[in-house]
């Protein structure tokens, strides 16, 4: 989402950091209370704190000046604006993927936004908004001998810990030796230096890496429409989840979602469910 800058002013970042300490240490999470002054149950009713990633292009990533951008970032800012929040009232903080959902569950963040697929297992600890994105799981490799899933047998396959790719690979690629990484950049670095033979990631991210490193090829695409991406919220915070759902539906109905999808995924089909109703 090469959208507007999503970083807030320094004092907001300091306030978010202080709140993180106040709500996330020692005894564990303290659930923010719903009230007339805090109807969405936010950690700070004046700010929405969002955990995301800095290297998940085109979903969520940082630019040279440290600003967050990408499809998920722009979409969330659009949704937040519909809830009455200005962009400077939305604080994005980058984390490793595996830490995002626990951080929401422990009230470190109000929301996590990083193309996070909705699964029954994940819903045991956090809640999800309605889905807003579906896509493909992809194998990226320089090995011309890997042309399908069977070609992964006996190969070292990189996955980012905590992702749908890790879950899928553990279930379906029994013959592959899985190597877990904290993020895509470190996995692709290992792929480029020969530490792993292939990397299993999201289609759009794979497309971006293959453009940056021509020796890497997209070898396998696996449809993943059964676990659409959603915004993650603290379990039981129905007020925030329902508000996000209402704003998401509005963004889909007035064409804002479609415009952002065309911007960030120009050659990718769009599900009818996410497009304006005639």
UniProtKB/TrEMBL annotation:
Ranges of residues in domain Solute-binding protein family 3/N-terminal: 47-268
Stretches assigned to the Ionotropic glutamate receptor C-terminal domain: 47-267
Main localisation: periplasm
InterPro entries from the UniProt entry: Iontro_rcpt_C, SBP_3_CS, Solute-binding_3/MltF_N
Localization (cell): Periplasm
Keywords on record: Signal
Coiled coil: none
Pfam families attached to this UniProt entry: SBP_bac_3 (PF00497)
Record family assignment: Belongs to the bacterial solute-binding protein 3 family.
PANTHER family named in the record: AMINO-ACID-BINDING PROTEIN YXEM-RELATED, MEMBRANE-BOUND LYTIC MUREIN TRANSGLYCOSYLASE F
Protein name: ABC transporter substrate-binding protein
């Amino acid at each position: 989402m090469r959208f507007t800058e999503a970083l807030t002013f320094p004092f907001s970042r300091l306030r978010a950091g202080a709140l993180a300490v106040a709500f996330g240490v020692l005894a564990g999470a303290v659930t923010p209370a719903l009230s007339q002054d805090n109807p969405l149950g936010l950690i700070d009713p004046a700010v929405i704190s969002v955990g995301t990633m800095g290297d998940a292009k085109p979903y969520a990533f940082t630019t040279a000046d440290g600003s967050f951008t990408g499809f998920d970032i722009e979409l969330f800012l659009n949704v937040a604006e519909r809830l009455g929040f200005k962009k400077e009232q939305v604080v994005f903080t980058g984390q490793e993927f595996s830490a995002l959902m626990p951080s929401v569950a422990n009230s470190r963040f109000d929301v996590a936004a990083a193309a996070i697929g909705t699964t029954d297992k994940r819903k045991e600890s956090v809640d999800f908004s309605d889905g807003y994105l579906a896509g493909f799981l992809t194998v990226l490799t320089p090995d011309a001998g890997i042309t399908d899933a069977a070609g992964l047998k006996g190969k070292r396959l990189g996955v980012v810990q905590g992702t749908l790719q890790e879950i899928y690979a553990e279930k379906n690629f029994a013959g592959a030796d899985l190597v877990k990484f904290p993020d895509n950049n470190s996995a692709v670095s290992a792929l480029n230096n020969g530490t792993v033979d292939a990397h299993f990631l999201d289609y759009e991210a794979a497309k971006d890496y293959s453009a940056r490193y021509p020796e890497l090829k997209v070898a396998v695409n696996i449809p993943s429409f059964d676990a659409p991406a959603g915004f993650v919220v603290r379990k039981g915070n129905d007020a925030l989840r329902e508000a996000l759902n209402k704003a998401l539906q509005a963004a889909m109905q007035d064409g804002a979602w479609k415009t952002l999808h065309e911007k960030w995924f120009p050659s990718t089909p769009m599900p009818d469910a996410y497009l304006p109703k005639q």
